[in-house]
Amino acid sequence: MNQIYAMRVFVRVAETQSFRRAAQQLKVSNALVTRSIATLEAHLHARLINRTTRNLSLTEAGTHYLEGCRGLLEELDHLEGSVAGTEREPGGTLRVVATGALSPQSLTQLLDGYRRRYPKVHIRLTLAERIPHLIEDGYDVGLFIAGPTPPSGAAAETESIELSFATQRLVPCAAPAYLATREEPRHPEHLVLHSCIATPSEQRGPTIWHFVDSDGDALPVMIEPSYMVNSPLLVRLAAIAGMGVAVLPEPLVADDFATGALRRIMQDYTVDESQAKVSLVYPRRRHLPAKTRAFVDYTLEHAGCPASALPADTHAIMAHDLHLAAQHAS
Length: 330
Description:
Blueprint: H1 3-16, H2 19-26, H3 30-44, E1 49-51, E2 56-58, H4 60-84, E3 92-99, H5 104-117, E4 121-128, E5 141-145, E6 158-163, E7 170-174, H6 176-179, E8 196-198, E9 207-212, E10 218-223, E11 227-228, H7 232-240, E12 245-249, H8 250-259, E13 263-264, E14 270-271, E15 278-283, H9 290-303, H10 312-318
Parallel strand pairs: 3-4, 3-5, 8-11, 8-12
Antiparallel strand pairs: 1-2, 5-15, 6-15, 7-12, 7-13, 9-10, 9-14
């Protein structure tokens, strides 16, 4: 049995969720795909795929094996390409997971720029409100607010870089219709008299909005949200509907300010910007696949971050790889 080829077949079946589509993409017969999977399962003495006439799903063993196959095959491809001096242009599917709190405009601009530079890469974006286990859940890279701590057990498997491009100014706002029924808050302490709309915190405990006055003094305010939803887009819609005061990324509500659907309030105060910093998270591997290395490099460039932003031990691993990006056209 050609185990490496069988592993490639298995990965393609898992990604396409179909024996037929995998065969079409690999340009082989359905029978060859079926035989490869059966041979691989016999070799491993474990069932990898549950199949019915209607659908296909991975077993627990299959999910674990898929994670290992991806890493091994990506490192093998990188090793062969670097030794032969013929490493291909980045291609394949890049699985990106990002927090829903990111500015859609900033995220779209980043992904569009990356795709224009590397058109052979297809991007599969997932928005998540909680940080997943990057590797176990099959993601290549993640973008999360406020320098996330990797999930339990994943700290040794990932690197994290703090970015500046998506550090988005947060602004307090409310609909004119809501403000017409209440006295407009002029100070953060006034918020206790208002209905507030918020997203759940990653940490258990009270919801706190962090404000800063003109002298730079911190003014944390504990609020009791009247409406809480784990989507900034739905928080925005709730604010427009007049359900209360919200704190949202400025790019997300800029058009609403322009049209008058929402109004910026408490002009003398700003929201602590540390609450909106963004981190880029990716697997800690000596040989990252070209598509992931290119994305890390491009994102650093797009964010205006120097190479020194990379974790110290990553320089040794990636120094020869960080040559892919040129100046991004604005």
